[in-house]
Design a protein that fits this description.
Structural class of chain A: mainly alpha
Distance between the termini of chain B: 21 Å
Low-confidence stretches of chain B: none
CATH class of the largest domain in chain A: Mainly Alpha
CATH superfamily of chain B: MetI-like
Radius of gyration of chain A: 22 Å
Radius of gyration of chain B: 23 Å
Order of helices and strands of chain B: EHEEHHHHHHHHHHH
Number of helices of chain B: 12
CATH superfamily of the largest domain in chain A: MetI-like
CATH topology of the largest domain in chain A: MetI-like fold
CATH architecture of the largest domain in chain A: Orthogonal Bundle
Distance between the termini of chain A: 29 Å
Number of helices of chain A: 14
Helix content of chain B: over 70%
Helix content of chain A: over 70%
Number of strands of chain B: 3
Number of domains of chain B: 1
Strand order of the largest sheet of chain B: 2-3
Oligomer: heterodimer
Largest interface: A-B, 96 and 92 residues
Shape of chain A: globular
CATH architecture of chain B: Orthogonal Bundle
Number of strands of chain A: 1
Shape of chain B: globular
Chain lengths: ~260, ~290
């Protein structure tokens, strides 16, 4: 135990405190929450969770979120793969400008796009569908996926491609059988980031949905304001939104450090 | 050297179509609104650059912009050094590494409005953990629905809680790529801790730090959901950041012209400052 490890420990405690409070709150009864302060739940209850798992407007929120996040991740990574390959292997007219333009889309505040997005997707009659949210999130996820994948592909020597072509591999066979397995860590990291940003974004998701594709996070805001102050329910729903992220992060834990550097270290 | 191959455009085409569809169409809509005036009934009239002049002269915009810059400035000067310090003191190998990484990354995977709601519950004066501790244990009057200072401290703390890990993980990625031989050489030379940091660790972290500062700038400058859920811009207008004000104008008052003009000015400022940071931070690489 070194002296300096006190810093990460204090930091992790600081990170865990609000999460602990949310989880503790979700197991308390409403009377206990409003009755006064208690550090631990005095009377454990699963009532809040039961409400969520039995009420379709609640659990469909989770299903909706997972559907559009999955569609978005698949689209983003699939189209980003060939593009990232092109950026890392070839020079072509306007490549630098295009790459920079892609990145500028990450800088646009979502608040700017909310209303035009609503009009655009309404005009295409895609309003309130999962595909609308999935496509809208491509705006910031595709540039990010291209950026990350390009970083990882840059680390693969070009000789790999050349040798494969000399050996008579066609491009699609080379790409799927040799190149993809080589950069699978990069694909995992890119998918993780797409999942993350699509999962946490709410403004666009809320703007583009009403009933059938409403994300869980939006269901929460509505409940918090309309049905009075049901803190226990709110806390339980919040706790459940942490779980998918925690599962996904556990799978990529060994690649996180490299992935956060976008493969460029 | 990369080969010149114009056919590579076909590889980029799907990305180009999807992003252009999502970026250009809405952007043109915004530009369209920004130069027109409407009196309802879907009738629009040419308004020239009037909205831009109004916005640039309006005190409300100046105030929101000032708050936004203050917020982003505080975020950067707290999160970047803190992130570097934490990354430096993290273990490099062993069982605790994945534990640290996973727990630190966790806040970033929580939906943004849940972050706001979570901090709301955490800071409630009488029943929140932090609120109770401040008011009843330390005896400090802490209530962010009344005091602008408390509201500011809370949104800053919330953002530090939410995003410092991004800086930590980026710097950590830079640090683990330093070979042990560098440290051994420094030890033989009798280098101080400061010298190791200044001449070995900092240069190695420079690239990732650039990414960290850029990402933190863009995201904190565009922040909307978390402070909106936590304080709703209040008390008064004290925490009405630029995005919150924009949404108020666009969706609250439905003043599309001014909102569109403000969006474009906002976007231009973000682009310009990002470019400035990028140029300043990579200036020495060219020499």
């Amino acid at each position: 135990m070194q002296k300096r490890s006190i810093i990460p420990i204090l930091y992790i405690i600081f990170l865990m405190l609000p999460i602990y409070w949310l989880v503790a709150m979700s197991f308390k009864t409403t009377q206990e929450i409003l009755g006064g302060f208690s550090l631990f739940p005095q009377k454990w209850t699963l009532a809040s969770y039961r409400t969520i798992f039995t009420d379709p407007t609640w659990y469909w929120g989770y299903i909706n979120s997972i559907i559009y996040v999955t569609i978005n991740t698949v689209i983003s990574v699939t189209v980003a793969l060939p593009a990232a390959y092109a950026f890392s292997r070839y020079r072509f007219l306007g490549d630098k400008q295009l790459f920079f333009w892609l990145l500028t889309n990450r800088m646009a505040p979502a608040a700017v796009f909310a209303l035009p997005f609503f009009q655009l997707y309404s005009a295409m009659e895609l309003f309130d569908t999962h595909i609308a949210v999935a496509l809208a999130h491509c705006l910031f996820n595709i540039p990010l996926a291209v950026w990350i994948l390009e970083g990882f592909m840059g680390g693969v020597p070009k000789e790999l491609d050349e040798t494969a072509f000399v050996d008579g591999y066609s491009f699609p066979r080379f790409f799927t059988q040799i190149f993809l397995p080589t950069i699978k860590a990069g694909v995992g990291v890119a998918a993780f980031f797409c999942f993350m940003f699509s999962w946490v974004e709410l403004l666009l998701a809320k703007t583009l949905t009403a009933v059938y594709a409403k994300p869980i996070a939006a269901t929460m805001t509505r409940t918090a304001s309309s049905a009075g102050y049901e803190l226990g329910l709110l806390a339980a729903a919040g706790t459940l939104t942490i779980i998918p992220g925690a599962i996904v992060i556990w799978f990529v834990r060994n690649y996180i450090a490299k992935g956060f550097a976008l493969g460029r270290v | 050297m990369r080969k010149v191959n114009q056919k590579a455009w076909f590889f980029v085409l799907p990305v180009l179509i999807l992003v252009a569809f999502n970026a250009l169409v809405p952007m043109m809509t915004v530009v369209n609104y920004s130069v027109q005036e409407t009196f309802g009934n879907n009738q629009f009239f040419w308004h020239g650059l009037g909205w831009f002049q109004d916005i640039l002269r309006s005190e409300r915009f100046h105030a929101a912009l000032g708050r936004q810059f203050l917020f982003t400035f505080l975020i950067l000067i707290i999160e970047v050094p803190l992130g570097v310090i934490i990354a430096l003191s993290m273990p490099r190998k062993g069982f605790w590494v994945p534990v640290c990484l996973v727990t630190m990354a966790l806040p970033m995977l929580i939906p943004w409005n849940v972050v706001g709601a979570m901090w709301n519950i955490f800071t409630l004066p009488d029943i929140g953990l932090l609120g109770y501790f401040m008011n009843h244990v330390l005896g400090i009057d802490y209530n962010m629905t009344r005091s602008p200072l408390a509201a500011w401290v809370t949104i800053i703390t919330m953002d530090v809680w939410h995003w410092t890990s991004l800086v930590v993980l980026l710097c950590y990625a830079g640090l683990v790529s330093i070979p042990d031989a560098y440290y051994q050489a420094a030890k033989i030379d009798g280098a101080s801790n400061w010298a190791v940091f200044r001449y070995i660790q900092l240069p190695k972290m420079k690239q990732v730090l650039t990414i960290a500062v850029l990402l933190r700038f863009m995201d904190s400058f565009n922040i909307y959901t978390e402070p909106f859920v936590l304080t709703g811009g209040g008390p008064g207008n004290s925490t009405t950041l630029l995005s919150i004000d924009l949404v108020k104008i666009a969706l609250g008052q439905f003043d599309l012209g001014p909102a569109a003009a403000m969006s474009l000015i906002y976007f231009a400022i973000t682009l310009f400052v990002s470019w400035l940071f990028y140029t300043l931070m990579t200036r020495h690489d060219v020499k």
